[in-house]
Specification:
heterodimer; A: 259 residues; mainly alpha; 14 helices; 69% helix; globular; B: 267 residues
């Protein structure tokens, strides 16, 4: 399985290398587009000192973690995000014919190296935030960052899979799907405690953003010392696995569009 | 003149075809609207005194922004025009006895107008009915409302002429990604699309005063809520009008220059 995926990766890399200038221009333009999203945080904190007790570098830290996870999805799981193309164009039939796991084929169908630009910027912001935060470093603190990034990656992967699953019913991926993916990213950049109660509850128990941007943050910044919080992002697994099953069950509903 | 009007009708009607997608877009707009308001609210609840504008003015600004998003959107890319530039079909356009500048201008304007007509009304109505403090307020007074309408119309012409200019530059540079998106992010920043202009750091606000971008929607939305009133509103609307003439003039001139040494992409 890994071998097949690596082959896909190589093919996509080769095709990108055919248009080097276009890639570089795209990379630069991604850089500017992403700039807008943390410019909001910087200019708001220029006016206000803190948001519900969180400082600018704490928010930049969650921003970076969430965006590292999100942009990893944009690079590697773009096929899942654009899944409606398979259904609309009838290409899903092709996937069914090949003796490789369907999900792997979807993942391999598109790898968007341009979004590495966002990933890179997010890592830079993470480093800036870490340098400016006053952290009592320990092994757990390093581990928690990795857990948070893995959690952020998984939670958005789950959302993208759900979006793909409902394309089996609607054929077209309506704009509604952006609510949980792009809208979700927008709000996951702030700890859920910033939002109103009903909202926060939904994004704790239904879409578990709280386990990547709130509970681990409490431990990381020293507000809580319960060691269990280090592993709180692992709860995301309880979210991703059902998403995958929903996708598989929905795929049985597939009727070819025949075009 | 008549041919341009027909052209307007064609693009306008074809834009109206996308009713379902407009409706589906509503949920996204409300979600984003709520998320932004709640983030601002959290800041306001923490330190109300540091805020540069009143909270209800800000909420009104954000909802108007969501309602008229497709009209005032700076990132507008006309797919048909871009693909014409790329595959060389633009040469057919050049053969026609029409002025390319006005044709593009009308095409962009009518597609923006049809998009916004499908979207703005439900957003406005629902936003009015929301509970305090999330609701859109009524206009400050009659004067504010009249000036808001005038300034919105001028703003729509302004954003169209800037958009047309960007498309002409894309035609010239054959690159609609790198330079164009860089320009658009900077324009959006000074327009108040990322955060309202009053929330920008001071030195950026100073620069924004000398650029056309903040007159696109920042001005009308602030007139509506009464953040800008009286003589300031009048003089700002006059400056806004001036920018429309200047940007059309520059776009028209660029268009003429470029057409005289155009290189069509083969294919």
């Amino acid at each position: 399985m890994v071998k097949v995926y690596l082959k896909y990766l190589k093919l996509h890399l080769k095709s990108v290398m055919q248009y080097k200038l276009s890639f570089i221009l795209g990379f630069i333009s991604q850089f500017f587009v992403f700039f807008a999203s943390y410019f909001v945080i910087i200019s708001l904190f220029e006016k206000f000192g803190s948001i519900k007790g969180f400082t600018v570098y704490e928010i930049l830290f969650t921003f970076a973690v969430v965006n590292i996870g999100f942009s990893l999805n944009e690079v590697f799981a773009r096929g899942v995000d654009n899944f409606d193309h398979f259904i609309k164009a009838g290409k899903y039939d092709q996937l069914l014919l090949k003796p490789v796991n369907i999900f792997l084929q979807v993942l391999g169908s598109d790898i968007n190296f341009l979004k590495l630009s966002k990933l890179l910027q997010s890592i830079v912001i993470l480093i800036i935030a870490l340098v400016n935060l006053d952290i009592d470093w320990s092994v757990f603190k390093v581990l928690i960052i990795l857990n948070m990034i893995a959690g952020a990656f998984c939670v958005f992967l789950g959302v993208f899979i759900l979006n793909a699953a409902y394309c089996f019913y609607t054929v077209e991926g309506l704009e509604v799907r952006n609510v949980l993916s792009y809208g979700g990213r927008e709000m996951a950049q702030y700890p859920v405690s910033v939002f109103k109660k009903e909202f926060a509850t939904f994004f704790t128990y239904v879409i578990p953003f709280a386990f990547i941007n709130y509970y681990p943050l409490l431990y990381f910044t020293g507000r809580e010392s319960n060691i269990l919080l280090v592993f709180s992002p692992l709860i995301i697994i309880l979210f991703v696995i059902p998403c995958y099953y929903i996708f598989n069950i929905s795929s049985r509903k597939y009727l070819s569009t025949g075009s | 003149m008549k041919q341009y009007f027909t052209y307007f009708k064609i693009s306008f009607i074809s834009g109206l075809q996308y009713r379902v997608s407009a409706l589906a877009g509503l949920s996204t707009q409300f979600f984003f609207g709520f998320v932004f308001i709640m983030i601002y609210l959290a800041f306001y609840e923490t330190e109300y005194d540091s805020a540069p504008m009143k909270f209800n003015e800000l909420v009104t600004y954000l909802w108007l922004g969501q309602a008229f998003f497709s009209l005032m959107y700076l990132y507008h890319k006309d797919k048909e025009l871009i693909s014409m530039i790329r595959d060389g079909n633009i040469s057919y356009e050049l053969c026609r006895p029409q002025n390319l500048y006005w044709k593009w201008y009308i095409k962009i304007f009518s597609s923006k107008l049809s998009m916004v007509l499908l979207r703005f009304f439900p957003v406005i109505i629902i936003a009015f009915l929301l509970p305090f403090p999330y609701n859109l307020s009524l206009p400050n007074n009659m004067f504010s409302f009249i000036f808001f309408v005038i300034s919105m119309i001028i703003g729509a012409f302004l954003v169209t002429s800037l958009s047309t200019m960007v498309h002409i530059i894309a035609f010239f540079s054959l690159d609609e990604k790198g330079i164009m998106s860089m320009f658009m992010v900077i324009a959006d920043l000074f327009a108040g699309g990322i955060v309202p202009v009053l929330f920008l750091p001071k030195f950026l606000q100073l620069i924004a005063d000398y650029l056309p971008f903040r007159y696109i929607f920042d001005l009308p939305y602030r007139i509506y809520s009464g953040n800008i009133t009286g003589m300031t509103a009048v003089s700002n609307v006059l400056i806004q009008l001036l920018w429309v003439f200047v940007s059309i003039g520059i776009g028209y001139y660029l268009n003429k220059r470029i057409l005289s040494k155009v290189e069509v992409q083969g294919g």
